[in-house]
Design goal:
Blueprint (H helix, E strand, L loop, with lengths): L22 H31 L4 H10 L4 H8 L8 H8 L2 H13 L1 H11 L3 H12 L8 E2 H9 L5 H17 L8 E2 L12 H7 L15 H15 L8 E5 L15 E2 H6 L3 E2 L11 E5 L8 E4 L1 H9 L3 H14 L17 H13 L13 H13 L10 H6 L9
Antiparallel strand pairs: 1-2, 3-5, 3-7, 4-6, 6-7
Helix pairs in contact: 1-2, 1-9, 4-14, 5-7, 5-14, 6-11, 7-14, 8-9, 9-10, 13-14
Length: about 425
């Protein structure tokens, strides 16, 4: 996700109020919509003037803004919250699948010369570029359908994040003029991410590259532009050539689960000395490479040793689930097998379940902050403290046994 969104900038959203039903309230809603429409027209005029002041020609600004329309669906999506909390097995199995692996290998052959050139120039191997491409848009199969400039203007005129999206909108209009893009073909995510690699306008302007040397940077229609831009972006984020993203590992029976997480970084040599092996049970060997352990599905699922390039992937999309999916998809496109550890069959937790978990932890004297339904670092640490107090495996994961011990009722496999 992601200064990106839906590809490079992931935000958490709050649930909106349910729809209104009765007549008098419906009239109020209609009046509000009319006022909002008037406000949008005024806001759009202001944005048009700001675009002109930033260097967009007056004729282009007038043509572009005349076509921009308010998109109420964008605001609905901006305010929405998922009902259920995504589990790692559900997330991973939907993204790292046979179709993406096979398609990635097919495209590796198709773009062999270009990908070899990019690997040499930017230091990013082909299978990683293909993995990003596959996860972002199914290799260009789905780039989004929302009119980008409409979406950005709608969000720019909404007070919640007006400053950010106003800048993105003006940048997008400047890109349209500079690259001779067609407004009608500028479609993407509801939040304005664009093209094969789902770049926000600011990333498009800063990192996009003319990969096919046709004098235009077009991330929608040119696969060469998109792949070259992705390679440049990753290089600028600090990709370390010659190193992988990480690997699946096995933990010893006496492992101290308090060593999990980014705050407990150690060298590969240190982890080897603690008895951690690769997924096949072989020694990790000696290396000064800093790394940390990620356990996304509890101790019954896979564990990963994350290297510095893992954090680079997370700068593209700040999600450990996403970074693992990119890494593993890249590995399998390059010929590796699947995960060694099984993906556990986990119940589907709703946000209400996580809220109940957080409230129960607070009631047990373990402060995890506000009960917001987000399974973040504070909540995971609170779970770990609770597990230690109950002589449970302290992996910081909300397993069914943890939920039951905290009095949160869960129906398995729902």
């Amino acid at each position: 996700m992601r200064h990106f969104l839906s590809g490079h900038f992931r935000l958490l959203f709050r649930t909106s109020v349910a729809g209104l039903v009765f007549g008098s309230l419906a009239i109020s809603q209609s009046a509000y919509s009319q006022t909002e429409s008037t406000d949008f027209v005024s806001c759009k005029a202001d944005l048009q003037q700001r675009a002109i002041e930033s260097g967009v020609s007056e004729s282009v600004a007038q043509q572009v803004f005349a076509k921009i329309a308010y998109q109420p669906r964008v605001i609905e999506l901006d305010r929405s919250q998922p009902e259920f909390v995504q589990t790692f097995p559900g997330y991973f199995s939907k993204r790292v699948n046979d179709w993406r692996i096979n398609k990635g290998r097919e495209l590796a052959a198709k773009h062999k010369a270009l990908l070899a050139k990019l690997a040499k120039q930017y230091g990013v191997p082909a299978h990683y570029l293909l993995a990003f491409w596959g996860l972002e848009t199914n290799f260009g199969g789905y780039k989004g359908t929302m009119p980008v400039l409409d979406s950005l203007a709608t969000l720019a005129c909404d007070p919640r994040r007006s400053t950010f999206f106003s800048k993105e909108l003006i940048t997008a209009v400047k890109l349209l003029e500079a690259q001779s893009l067609e407004q009608e073909r500028m479609v993407g995510s509801w939040a304005g991410a664009m093209g094969h690699t789902q770049f926000m306008p600011s990333a498009y302007a800063a990192y996009a590259v003319d990969g096919d040397n046709d004098g235009q940077i077009n991330l929608w229609d040119s696969e060469a532009d998109a792949l070259t831009s992705a390679a440049n972006f990753l290089a600028q984020l600090g990709w370390q050539p010659g190193f992988r993203w990480g690997r699946e590992v096995m933990l010893p029976n006496d492992f101290d689960y308090r060593l999990l997480g980014y705050s407990n970084r150690r060298t590969v040599t240190d982890w080897d000395a603690l008895g951690i092996t690769n997924a096949q049970g072989n020694a990790l060997g000696n290396s000064d490479l800093n790394s940390y352990l990620v356990m996304p599905a509890g101790h019954e699922g896979p564990t990963f040793l994350a290297y510095p390039n893992f954090r680079v992937i997370m700068r593209w999309n700040n999600s450990e689930f996403y970074a693992i999916a990119v890494g593993r998809l890249a590995d399998q496109i390059a010929g590796d097998g699947g995960l060694v550890a099984p993906l556990p069959d986990l119940p589907a937790y709703s946000r209400d379940h996580i809220i109940a978990l957080q409230r129960s932890l607070n009631e047990h004297g373990i402060n995890v902050g506000g009960a917001d339904g987000i399974l973040g670092p504070a909540t995971r640490e609170g779970i770990r403290q609770f597990q230690l107090s109950r002589d449970m495996v302290a992996d910081g994961f909300p397993s069914l046994s943890v939920m039951q011990a905290l009095g949160v009722t869960i129906t398995p496999n729902t």
